[in-house]
Amino acid sequence: MLRRSFIQSSALSLGYLVLGYSLAEQKAVAAQTGFANAWIRVGSDNSVTMVTPRAEVGQDIYTTLPLIMAEELDFPVTKITVEQATADAAHYGNPHPIMGGNQVTGGSTSVRGHWDQMRTIGASARFMFIQAAAKKWGVSPTECSTADGFVLCGAKRASYGELTELAALETPPEKPALKDPKDFKYIGQRINRLDTPIKVNGGEVYGMDHHEPGMLVASVARCPVMGGKLISFDDQSAKAIKGVLGVYKIGEALAVVADDFYLANKARGLLKIKWDFGDTATRKDTATIMARLHEAAKKPGVVVAKSGNFENPVAGAAQSIHAVYEQPLLAHASLEPENCCAMIKDGECHVWGPFQLPGFAKSSGAAASGLPPEKVIVHSMFIGGSFGRKMGFDYAFEAVAIAKASGRPIKLIWTREDDIQNDFYRPPTVHQLSGAVDAKGKLSGLMVKLVSPSPSIKAVPPWVQNGVDLFMIEGLNNLTYEIPNHRAETLIQDVDVRVGYWRSVSNATNAFAVESFIDELATLGQRDPLEFRLEMLGRQPRAQAVLKLAAEKAGWGKPLPPGHFHGIAHQECYQSYLAVVAEVSVKDGVPTVHRLTAAVDVGIAIRPNQVETQVEGGLLMGYWTAMVNQITLKDGQVEQDNFDTYKMLRFDSTPLVDVHLIVTNNRPSGIGEAGVPLAAPAIGNAIAKATGVRPRKLPFVDA
Amino acid sequence: MEIKVNQRTQQFNGDPETPLLWYLRDHLKMPDTRFGCGQGLCGACSAHVDGKLVRTCNTACDEVVGKEVTTISGLAPHLAQAIKSAWIKVDVPQCGYCQNGMMMAAAALLSQTPHPSDADITDAMNKNICRCGTYAQIRKAIHLAAKNLTSKAV
Q1: Contacts of A61 in chain B (CB under 8 A)
Q2: Residues of A (415-444) whose Cβ lies below 8 Å from B
Q3: In sequence order, what are the residues at sequence separation of 6 or more whose Cβ sits closer than 8 angstroms to the Cβ of residue A4?
Q4: pLDDT 10s digits, A200-219
Q5: Please, are residues B142 and B118 in contact by the beta-carbon 8 Å criterion?
Q6: How high is the pLDDT of residue A235?
Q7: Contact between A351 and B110 (Cβ < 8 Å)
Q8: Backbone angles phi, psi at A586, to 5 degrees
Q9: What is the pLDDT of residue A541?
Q10: CATH, range B2-74
Q11: For FRET with A604, which of A23, A479, A559, A703 sits at 20 to 30 Å CA-CA?
Q12: How far apart are CA B131 and CA A629, in angstroms?
């Protein structure tokens, strides 16, 4: 216990020397553990373990954050062992201002939030190793340097491992000196992901790979209409199946626990359940849901950005147009369905699973088990895709409740149908836009109003302030364009469908509306869409640079194969600057996307290869979603349920993707989501050019 | 019934209709085949039966009696090595959840077609879904794996 409390209490100060312990005690622990705080542990064999505070959902934060620590510690990145942090916001909270210190992986904040912290932690440790070596050798610390996990002084050389016990007793510096970026050894290099061998070589990787002795498997029958109630049920035939342990009422759902997932589902299919669907009038079909947004759009919203004559941005203009854009509900559909293993034993509750917010898993586990939160131990596993879905509350609550009710360690798995029909969907949106150009064809005014349900209002109420959801204004209050007369508004309108955060959140919905409409205005002014944008970016060199590079690499303005057309779009997203050119042809009304060319400026690209693959994956997700995906409702029930009705991108529809990086010395910005938004408007703009008809509604192909 | 998985025969007395996927995952505790859709639509659960690519989520246990089931951990070492090293070199995975299935589909392809063209790859891999969009990296890794296999054969 002494060791654990040492590590825990020392973590906050990043050092080891903890008040309240005698020097003898400290030496005893140091001898046992060596240098160890909540972030970095150094073994006497010169092995280094680093803890990553953010969840790994595929975005590769597993490598990136430890790499930043390793850069400042001066230890070879490829030799680090990485550990996923447990639920512990005091140590592993997200320092990005928007996250309020909560342990959240989201909003593309991981690098933006932890950049200074990771550097400081690494530099602080390095300082302590130098101090330790200097004392050991009787030299001044200023005479010492480090290289790849060794402290050097003239001919003297000691590994961090040799010094770990001594370094543990050093006092961490108040404010350690950080490297000059020109001296970065690892940052900016094409270093492979540290999790690749683990994922390729297999073993226990994801939540549902975990096993405990005696663990059974659970499947849950939920009301086909979300929010409906369980009236009564008959579980006789379900329970009669050999291998079924029992059927348990969990809230308004029924859980079947069995020897395997096949039996659990077989029994689930035999349950006779009477549901109360509740009032589904507002959700009787998708048209009803969208009509509600259109009706709400008549009301004024809350102004979130303005300039010039913001009350009437198009007043007195040479030419003006008005347009309405519509985007559907979407499911996340990560390939790993929701799952969670739960075990209640010896007064503790353990959960294993995919958690973007492990704190939610902790609080849900506490609520479901009746144990205090500190008795809920969260084991965060690699996440098999999330895109904003796997926050950690609903499935973790279910799993722990089932473990408690059945008295067995259980593994809860959702079927694909459960996943698609019980999502926190991307909010459906309606955008109203008005815009004007002057006599020279220059943009003179723009009004844009977003109407949609709020993803935060129920999940994280503090993110809604004065009627504005911080996750509806992304991509709306940060337009890069200098617009003489401008107003942007948002209006929250509930639609009685559960909504949530979907990769890039409102950046995507706002980008499709705004960047499509900018093209409409370029057409109105008889202007080239690229020039039209560039002339509004006089004060935005980074935005200009990405637009110019994407255009150049795609061959903008140069001849294309017959029937092929280019569309362009640009956005600042999570402080990254992006531009995308889509090459599209349309045959019998069906668009084919041949190539997506992107340029991106993320400031310091910590791992350029990671930036490129994130943008590529994001573009493909944005492209395919815009092409075919939509969630529709009928009498309150979601109509799609698996990959035959909610189709996924496959090899045969994957276009060529080129991503070009512009490396600048700006602070690193967000990139896990920023690839998503621009595919849709770039493709829409190309479709409009190809057909003369402006697509204002997604998906492009109504399958 | 007797089921032979990766050269090892074991007795299974459960429901003969149990999909192979759940026999492997829940009874043998093998995470090699992953659950993605349960309908043979995504390929995450891919394995080989008598050397042929199958979706274990819609292959019943009684269909594989008397046959050889191979999962990724039981692939022939030269094939596994060629594919896994290519996957690692290209740094293919993002979330990684689909990749066991992708590698098994690639293994089946390379066993039939040692030098697949891009069109062969699209054809053979089209039943496998990667939600993160690593298709270009997978394609590259398959070409590299083909090269690995050939150079070893020489």
Answers
A1: none
A2: 415-416
A3: none
A4: 998 889 999 999 999 999 99
A5: no
A6: 98
A7: no
A8: -130, 125
A9: 98
A10: 3.10.20.30
A11: A479
A12: 13
Beta carbons of A346 and A297 less than 8 angstroms apart: no
Please classify residue A439 by burial: count the beta carbons closer than 10 Å to its beta carbon, then call 0-12 exposed, 13-18 middle and 19+ buried. exposed
Six token digits for residue A603: 């400031």
Q: Say how far apart CA A130 and CA A143 lie, in whole Å.
A: 9
Nearest to A199 among B99, B125, B126 (CB): B99
Structural class in CATH, domain A2-200: alpha beta
Which of B41, B95, B121 shows the shortest C-beta gap to A643? B41
B55 in Cβ contact with B64 (< 8 Å): no
Max Cα-Cα span within chain A: 83
Residue A177 DSSP one-character state = P
* A657: closest chain B residue by CA: B136
Which of the four pLDDT bands, split at 50, 70 and 90, describes residue B153? low
Mean pLDDT throughout B103-115? 97
Partner B, chain A 253-282, Cβ-Cβ below 8 Å: 259-263, 266
Measured CA to CA, the distance from residue B150 to residue B154 in angstroms comes to 6
- Given a cut of 70, the residues of chain A with pLDDT beneath it are 1-21, 703
* Among the partner residues B18, B19, B131, nearest to A335 by beta-carbon distance: B131
What's phi and psi for A295, nearest 5 deg?
-65, -45
Q: Strand pairing partners for A419?
A: none
User: The complex's ipTM?
Assistant: 0.98
| Mutation site for A-interface testing, chosen from B88, B118, B132 by largest number of A Cβ within 10 Å | B132
In this structure, what token pair is assigned to residue B45? 């659960």
Chain B residues with beta carbon closer than 8 angstroms to that of A200: 84, 87-88, 92-93, 96, 99, 103
**Per-residue pLDDT tens over the stretch A452-476:** 999 999 989 999 999 999 999 999 9
What is the distance between the alpha carbons of residues A147 and A76, in angstroms, rounded to a whole number? 9
Q: What is the CATH number assigned to the segment(s) B77-153?
A: 1.10.150.120
- Report d(CA A18, CA A21) in Å as an integer: 6
Pick the CATH number of A207-278+338-413 from 3.40.50.300, 3.30.365.10, 3.10.180.10, 3.40.50.620: 3.30.365.10
Please state, in angstroms and rounded to a whole number, the distance separating the CA atoms of residues A204 and B53.
Answer: 23
Of all helices (H) and strands (E), which one includes residue A244?
strand A244-250
Contact A200 B88 (CB under 8 A): yes
- A22 Cβ neighbours under 8 A, 6+ residues apart: none
Give the pLDDT of residue A18.
Answer: 47
Q: Interhelix angle for A61-73 vs A110-137, to 10°?
A: 30
Residue A9 has a pLDDT of 44
- The phi, psi pair for A664, rounded to 5°, reads -125, 175
Q: A384 and chain B: CB distance < 8 Å anywhere?
A: yes
Which position has the token pair 């499947």? A219
Contact A617 B94 (CB under 8 A): yes
A574: left (phi over 0), alpha (psi -120 to 50) or beta: left
pLDDT of residue A66: 98
Q: A249, A662 in Cβ contact below 8 A?
A: no
pLDDT on residue A450: 98
Residues of chain A contacting residue B92, judged by C-beta atoms under 8 Å apart: 196, 200
- B70 token code pair: 């191979």
The contacts of residue B37 (CB under 8 Å, 6+ apart) are A416, A642, A643, B44, B57
CA-based nearest residue in chain B for residue A611: B94
- Whether residue A332 contacts residue A502, with contact meaning beta carbons closer than 8 Å, is answered with yes
Cα B73 off chain centre by: 10
Contact A679, A622 (CB under 8 A): yes
**Residue B151 pLDDT grade (very low, low, confident, very high; cuts 50, 70, 90):** confident
CATH for A286-331+424-691, options being 3.90.79.10, 2.40.160.10, 3.30.365.10, 1.20.120.450: 3.30.365.10
The DSSP letter of residue A9 is H
